[in-house]
Amino acid sequence: MSEKHLDKIISLCKRRGFVFPNSEIYGGLKASYDYGPMGVALKKSISDLWWKEMTQRHQNIVGIDSSIMVHPDVWKASGHVDNFNDPMTDNKDSKKRYRVDDLLSQQKDKVINTLCETLNVKHSNDDTIFESLAHMLLEKGKDGDGLLEKAGVIDPHSGSIGKWTTPTQFNLMFKTDAGPSEKSGKEIYLRPETAQGIFINYLLIQNSMRLKVPFGIAQIGKAFRNEIVARNFIFRTREFEQMEMQYFVNPKEDAKHVKEWKEKRFNFYIDRLGIDKSNLQFHQHGESELAHYAKDAYDIQYQFPFGWGEIEGIHNRTDFDLTQHEKLSGKNMTYFDATENEKYHPYIIETSCGLNRIFLMVLCDAYFEDTENERVVLKLPFELAPNKAVICPLVKKDGLPERAAKIFEELNKKYSCIYDEQGSIGKRYYRQDEAGTPFGITIDHQTLEDNTVTIRERDSMKQTRVNEDQILKLLK
Ligand code: ATP
Fold first, then answer.
1. In terms of pTM, does the model score above 0.85?
2. Most ligand 1 atoms within 8 A of CB, residue of 191, 242, 308 to mutate
């Protein structure tokens, strides 16, 4: 699948009511999107499946919905105030700002080789080389001034070799003031991850639900990051939704649980969301990539039209977060293990995925151009499809709309369906093929005589005539 496909998916999303550019009447707000009627339904189906998988199917995992705004010390303890940064540089002529690793990823090999030699960085053949160079430049500070220019780093905006400012750290958290005025208010942050809301509540939850290790706490909610480079449609935005589950384990058993969750999470995408296995892979974090809190980390990546991209991280966060909160709050964060008769800070195995990225993955995986029949089909699994069937009277007369409406009402009690009497039957089917609706049900004159209808299957386009009281059974 090529980049061209992404453009086609973006336009399908707008055409069929999945995703719209935000504030379009004002010229739009970069990297901000709104989910239309079909988008909301698809997003909800995905998050419902995740929630069910994590909580309902695991007796030892419970839910929480914590606040987006928390005490600012939470972010000091978590390390986000000091460490949640990306190195960035400004082009002095175009005034454009770039994330250094992203800027380097857009340069020719010759430029990267020169930088590796000058900065004494060993060349690796994957993307981690750009991050390593960016961190090296950051460490050099003013001493590294002019190196980017000398190596021939081109400004992607102007296309010419640019003059660059000293790479500096840029904190990704959105700041705001809580209180009646900027002066008297307290400076707070919009949460950059949902995880901390789980950690600071973990003992309250453990006590109230009488949980024993290993146990998990799951949360779905918005997170905010002031990304310097927000792009690839809804893949990277400044406001997004995370689905996180933090698993509290005995530190002696951390590796076992990392392995368990790696497998479970990978299989979730194949078994529950119907994603093609060949489009998924693991990427283990190397030393230079590991977050400040992590001992071991794996990304699950999907092959998007623009390349492999992370959809979920499985991290061994150790006891970093709990001990940090204990230090800063002064409150005891240990857990008493009655079986072992000892107190400790549990290790935390995190599974953290982005709902919007999964949404994009589902669309990319389902998008199919049926050239033979000149149509585009979203081959969404039944469970994810926003509408399960379209109900169509063949013509708008002879009592067919009334009969179709009756069938629609009956089916709609059980499954979300859509009624359509506009345009030719072929056009109506094709519209729904693009929207991922698995079945088309047509009511014609024969229906009035013998109570049978035609059911058309989206992917095969096969049509079968069945009695109307068989429809529900067939959909099931
Ligand atoms: P990336 O390397 O792509 O910036 P990350 O490693 O910073 O991601 P995590 O902090 O592990 O991401 O967050 C967990 C998940 O949240 C990611 O796997 C991704 O699905 C989602 N996510 C993170 N940042 C964004 C974003 N800006 N827009 C949409 N989803 C995001």
1. yes
2. 242
